Amino acid sequence: MSHSVRVFSDLDALAQAFAAILIKDLDRVEPDHFYTIALSGGTTPKYIFSYLAENYAERIDWEKLLVFWGDERCVAPESISSNYRMAYESLLQNVPIPDANVFRIKGEDDPSTEARQYSELVTDNVAEFEDTPQFDLILLGLGSDGHTASIFPDRTDLFKTTRLFEVAVKPGTAEKRITATGRLINNASKIFFIITGKEKAKIVAEIVEKKSGSERYPASRVDPESGHTVWMLDAPAASQLKK
Ligand code: 6PG
């Protein structure tokens, strides 16, 4: 249960640091083993993914990576709001990663069935730690309401469930999502919150500095038991942090 904060002058610097950590981690992967990563969605990762594709396509050993998602919108992969589509167009189609290494959440299928099936797929393909799949790295974003993955403030019970993936609904909409739960997130070896922009500065400071009332934000409950959390921030997103 440790966390650190890293602040970058701009998105290129953040992407370079992310790539450097990934390359170092991949160098440590044993032969016949994989490095398992769960991607986040939304808009923030798109620039980072594009930067990796443009600058690290030949410098990252993509064959060692198994790619999953921490959450998905219940839409078809062609949909503009599909997290898979965003990652595919900005990264996966532009780097030499085998199709067999990419495990998308089937947002087009029945949500509860897919939540169950994806839990089984993760259980079959991600090494376990203390009877729960343990991702080597989970990427997370942060919504202005304090949600992360697709765990929204009205569903903090998803940090108590024994299930690995659950169906959620974006508050105020009928938009269904499939999301990793707290059990899976907090069992990760490493978690990167990648957050940019001054509109996130206030909530970042509230959560990182554990200000009173911040426990109502789902992101404040991300605290991996045996893992480490890194807040990867650009300067505007870090602009309200005391230190
Ligand atoms: C999603 C995400 C979600 C996202 C935040 C931040 O599917 O939307 O996984 O948790 O990370 O909503 O989104 P932005 O990066 O667009 O601000």
List descriptors:
six-stranded parallel sheet; 243 residues; alpha/beta; 21% strand; three-stranded antiparallel sheet; binds 6-phosphogluconic acid; globular
What is the makeup of the main sheet? Answer: 6 strands, parallel
Q: Could you say which small molecules are bound to this protein?
A: 6-phosphogluconic acid
Strand content: 15-25%
Oligomer state of the chains in this structure: single chain
State the share of residues found in helices, binned by percent.
25-40%
Question: What's the short story on this structure?
Answer:
The protein is α/β, with parallel strands linked by helices and 243 residues long.
Overview of this protein structure:
The chain has about 240 residues and is of the alpha/beta class. Helices cover about 25% and strands about 20% of the residues. The strands form three sheets. Strands 1-11-10-7-2-3 form a six-stranded parallel β-sheet. The chain has a three-stranded antiparallel β-sheet with strand order 4-9-8. A hairpin with a 6-residue loop joins strand 8 and strand 9 (about 175-180). Helix 1 packs across helix 2 (about 45-55) and helix 2 (about 45-55) runs parallel beside helix 3. The model has no long low-confidence stretch (mean pLDDT about 95). It binds 6-phosphogluconic acid (6PG). 6-phosphogluconic acid (6PG) binds near residues 44 and 147.
